[in-house]
Fold each of these.
Amino acid sequence: MKRTFVKGTFLIWLLVLPLMAYSQVTVSGTVTDADSGEPLIGVTVIVKGSTTGTLTDIDGNYSINAPEGSTLTFSFIGYSDLDVAAADAGDVQMQTDVTNLDEVVVTGLVSSIKRSNLANSVSTVSSEALTGTTTGSTLDGALYGKMTGVNINAAGGAPGGQTAMRLRGISSLSGNNQPLFIVDGVYISNVQLTNGSAVASGANAGREEGGSNRVSDINPDDIESIEVLKGASAAAIYGTRANAGVVIITTKRGATGKTTVKFDQDIGFNTIQNFAGRRQFTSATVASTFGDAEVPIFEAARDAGRIFNYEEELYGEEGLILDSRLSISGGNDKTTFYFNASRRDEDGIMQRTGYERNSLRLNLDHRFNDKLKVGFSSNYINSTADRGPVGNENNGGFSVGYNLALVTADWEDLFPDENGVYPDGRFAATNIIFNRDRIDNSEEINRYVQGANVEYKAITDENFQLRFTANGGLDYFEAKTFVYIPESQQTQRATTQGFVSAGNTNSLQLNYNAFAVVDYNAGNNININGQFGMSYLNFESDAIINQTTQLFPNQTNLAQGNSFAVFQRLTEEEEFGLIGQSTVNWDDKIIATAGIRFDKSNLNGDPNKFFAFPRASLAVNVANFDFWNVDAVNLFKLRVAYGETGSSAQFGSLFTPLGPTSIGGVPGLGLPTVGQNNQSAQLGDANLEPETSQEIEFGADFSFLDGKIGLELTGYKRDVKNLIYPFSSIPLSSGFANTIRNDFDLSNKGVEISLSANPISNSNINWNTTLNWWTNDADVERLGVGEFQPSGEGFSLTFGSSFIREGETATSLAANINGVTTIIGDAAPDWEMSWFNQIKLFRDFDLTFLWHWKEGGDVLNLTKLLSDFGGVTPDLDNPDVIANPRFGTFGAAGYIEDGTYIRLREVGLYWTVPAEIDWFERLRIGVSGKNILTITDYTSYDPETSAFGPSGLSQGIEVAPFPSAAQYYFHVGLTF
């Protein structure tokens, strides 16, 4: 019997194996652009319904084994997906689709949808659009001007970045107006680090120190795509972390096929975008400004050729930039991988400033069988930044920009003598050359981000699928900051005789989500998707700053001083959410979604109370109905969406903090004074509930001429209720400096328009262009305390400040004019527009450029105010200025300027060498520039900068920043 069984089995295999071999066919061919005939590189070719796939090579060729009777799916960014029977495949032509209707967009924790079925406006940025033109120092900096509804401001141009991104206007007054960042399912910290220099500079708060925010650690070259959920109607599924929107980042992953090795080298340099300018003195103007005794000193320096331009001396460097990237990717039908190693070394426009980032990434995906697959994303980053003595100050002798304006005379010789001794500044509080050469201001970051996901398909029937997914990860970083001011520095000799501040911050963020996902075909072309699950977040941080003054000579050790101070801030945040959502799709004609999230948090007054955040949306694809007969319009979609999100109070708002005190020599706890974290004697509120946003969004989308032209029209109204804010106008006799309130409502209204087109497409020219236009108004609807000046959002009303008044915009700027608090400007732009172009010339050349136009938006130019007080502003000899001095005649209103500009954000020209070379597949060389041209009437460094960092209102006030830089690059890219 055994022999009979073996013989029978052998016979069966002899019959089956030829049939199996016969059922597999090899399909090969070339994929080209349907209009130009140009071969398309990197097109994904997959056997539909399986994981078998490949990519086209440099000549557009592909080869794949496919079962008989199967279908091949061809997909490529910017082109419509194409399904072809394997038997009929061979050479394939793909049609351009600038509307990307077949693009799958991630819209929730475990949900995605075709763009043609979206009910919200979701901005997407591909890797090509993000870094394909030029290299960006940081992720947020690379996003400038590339999305509707997004406003970006920099606190200055110091290497390493400090950028504020705001989606659809103001979301909070005291909290973070920055969106939630998620990378491969991991919630990423984007905190701004303080370094303690405010204690020495006299700045009002740590956020004025010019430190970076942590999203700058992410290597832009690792990113495959970015999707931005701008409003509450799209972001509601993320609950209390999503009040300012959500940025979903997907990094690059491997693909089935041969292993691909890519190496890219960029060489460039930084140079200042714009000098504010210096006054050109004569003997007469020296006498009128500084007195007759200064005239012979000036004339002697002039006659000896010793008139210096200290602005150019400080900011005139051309900093070298080296950016190297090596990636390896590939895999088989079971396991795919992507590895990237990169190093960026960037020198600033001022000596002893620069930024370095070293990044390693490994992404792995493994499919155990048809049911179970897992994925891992690992990223290690080490970065260092040397920012120099920059940031705002109150005449503490630290900031070179502040003391350059108030006041450093260009005939002062501030350079060291032959013994290395620096002279004292005779007008400013310090010698700015000494500060540049001897003050240290640095940070070092070690960061590890680990993400993981698992998916199990429990049931896979023809009409019903049930799968379980879980994902999460951790984001851990250790940040070290160091500030050193020698005891020989001019201001320090008269005050604390040297200063050292050494900070150490440890931050750990954990998150995980678990969901059950159901897909059900109910018949009659009705498909139902349901997802139900939970989300858990835990964020902890420990920030310590140790400071020493009264240093021993030439010592930088914390122990080598005679006066010590320690500042520590511990935070712990914990949140838990329950989520449910369902989508019903009738034949891609009507798509309806409804969902709700319940969140609780230890940042709320009742940590066990759940708050509900619902969402609902409806999209109607009118052009998909049978009655539609307009052939030129292949998409006409009407959409409407509603959603709610929230934002809990900042850690510490629920309670009144205590600090060490001593009464009669007896130690104890009492109310603290203003400390390192601007944590003053605050009266907490133990009953706080989250701020909430309710948004209604509506729009219409069109696609014409088979995707050659696309148009998106969106309008929205977002009401933010019960904003939480510190109110400082309370009697000091109460024993408190401020109290926490939440009786503030505001409304954001806006319009967004995006027009995409492929106006020329032939064998010589293929031109894709996108024009974006957007506007937003944020108005104060309710204010329980009357008008007030927000804490930490400006200076005294003598010099101008942000100001909150019911009935005015939340971005108002105000000043005291003749004893009356008067609105003098609005920091929000009237509107913004960007124009992005990709032009392929004669198959081998690629020209790309991005223009960005910001219309309106007032800027309080306090750099000019300082230089007016110092007597060094370039136009002080203008007769009109002499007759009407700005401050004396108009007060702070004399320094409000229109921040309108038109800027060439990016431009690049690349050549793909057409010849085949044995040892590599592709050689691409090019040149590019970033921020190389700005057209503006603004008279200081940059109308985009703001003194107050990424949190709060954070725009419209400039105080002698580190100037912004233009960047120029030469690129070489090899593919093996």
Amino acid sequence: MRTALRRFAVTTLTTLALAAAPLGLTAPSTATPTTPSTGAASSARDTQSQFVSLSIDSVAPNTVTTSSDPFVTVGGTVTNVGDRPVADVQVRLQRAPKVDAPAQLRTVLAADQEQFDTVGAFQSVAARLDVGRSATFTLTLPLRSATATSLEIAEPGVYPLLVNVNGTPEYGGAARLDDARFLLPVLGLPRDPSVDDSTDLAAAPIPPSTADPVAVTVLWPVADRPRIAAGVPGSTEEPVRLVDDDLATSLASGGRLEQLLAAAEFATADGVDRDHQLAQSLCLAVDPDLLVTVSGMTHGYLVVDDPADPTGAARSGTGQAAAGAWLDRLKALASRMCTTAVPFAQVDLAALQRIADPTLVARALTTPADIVDGTLGVTSLRGLTWPDAGVLDAEAAASLNGLGPTVLLAANAVADNTAPQKVPLTGGNNGGPLNAALFDVPTASALAAVGDTPQTPTFAPAGARIDLSGDSRTARLQDALGAVTWQSLSTRTMESRMASPDPRTLLVVPPQQWTVDGDEARTVLSTVSTMLRSGLATARSLPDVLSRNVTTPPFDLVYPEQAVRDGAPGPVQAAAAAAAPEIEAITATLVNDPQSALTPVRYTAPLNEDLLRALSTSGRRDRDQGPATAAADNRVAQVDLAMDRIYGAVTVLAPGGAYTLASEQSPLLLVARNDLPVGITVRLQISAPTAMTVTDIGDQQLPPRGSRALQVPAKVEGSGKMVVDVAMTTVNGRELGEPTAVSIRTNAYGRVLAIVTGCAGALLLLLAGRRLWHRFRGQPDRADEGYEPQ
């Protein structure tokens, strides 16, 4: 439901107002837009007030075929949201001409009401509707009729419909108070119900033209926003910690992720998809961050009380069983159909390129396929890069050259997205072209609006950034179905087909974090399946899209300003750029023990992943970006704190008091402590007074969670008390722990003591020799005078 320029009410009590035509009174509205730009409509919304709100609750059939009911039935609700009662509330159904250009799939939903010029009769909803009260209605109108009022639809196509509500607010005159719009895809017309003669060809069903089918490929996203608590290094013993327990609900029966999985399971089952066309066109697009999280949940997990204190108080999570069951089902589904990995945690690839840290790039773009393969037991499709934003700047595209051959799935390669799906872009792999598979912007925009949290995609052009705040879920779903089917119902001319004989292609790409429920997911897949079975479309696998030969000239990427606003905040990027080298430095100094499952990379990988989660675009397209920004700020702050804890966990133990060196060459005895669960290589940095010479003992390895006594050779000249400063660093110079001062006493007298000792020894030898000489000659020694033998 779109209120701007379409919601009218009584503004005065004057005779002029009472005399106004029922469809002509304008009135202010207080509705607030959810997007930065909604065209001319947005400016009026701030100055208009609203009396009633109209919501579309059901549309049947949601997609018309030759075998459908020949009537369209629309159910809805009118609610008095104003400050006064409204009398004589009436509704009617109206239709605009069928959509004949892709841009109209979005812009027609904000068009003037006068364009919906095929109208049905008004139907009374309530004689009086008090403030805060609601009334439901059901409108039914034939698609076509030779004898009665109808929607006058004469051929297949996508048709905009509008439900208009009129009423008379207290103290005012009759006016048009609100309307709601949606698209109705007509894949074929059923028989005219007003004609009984079965031989009347004019009343016969009208099938669509299948002379120019569209080759359809569908990406089915399996992703969620980051949930793992930040700042917790890897472990083989500790359970994973999450910031909330929402996944327990989402993975359980009826939850969002469970329903996404169930819809794909059902739609591609042998009994439903008998010719396997839908299964061939479908590819699961899996977020590795979600797999890391769910896999951790299967072993038992904790939910922290405060995300800002990830190592603090926590409670046991409730979703272990649901996580295990869901993961098993995903493994089974992935084993029988195409599966590919998306970049880790919906990371902002443009921000990642600006940081330019090789470890982060690999973790975001190379490792995801390995995570998917290892977790699901499949060989996933490589060679595809799908940024969550749907767009990429030229610099980031050029940075993909280290990944090997890859295809960029994007919406911004060319201004005209009716061009062939796979085009080369300048600045690609190794300076050569980078292939891009272009998805349909109107279809992707409409799909992003479906679900519990409607989004306006980053790539949506300004004219298509319409306000979604008043639209019901039913209306948004109808808009998506219309967008999905439009191209297949719009045949090219013979000249166009001869000029471009290749089949038209359609990439159906919902947002990675899609908030649809089970009914919405099943309806989208059912519509694609109907297109395939009716001959309007053919199945094209994603591997086939990626392997097509490219014959078109190169194009440049166009990066919209909206992508900057929807991207990772600048301070978060700067913090991540500062933290990434520190993680790499500590990883390089940790010891890889073949006997331990906890390797240095496994220990620090969660911290790199935290940085990627901080750079995520998840939540950045919401009306309020505040929560996403706060979560990103917390993540980089927690990584910094985790690094401080790691560096502080390795230190030299200060002795309880001064100790004494027994000699001038007695070694310094030090104890180094490592509280980390992995071993580490360290170096001692000793600052000694000039009277002491200390020998460098080189790199030393400390065991995990243990201590080691270190003997440092030293030579002292002089005696007395001296202070030695001792610090410990990594092999790449990062300081570990806190420096300590060691007090030493020494009894060494240096060179003087050596001379005195030498002289005394010489004198002693001289006297002993003299005595022995006299005894040998039998002469009495003067030293023996007074001594008489007995």
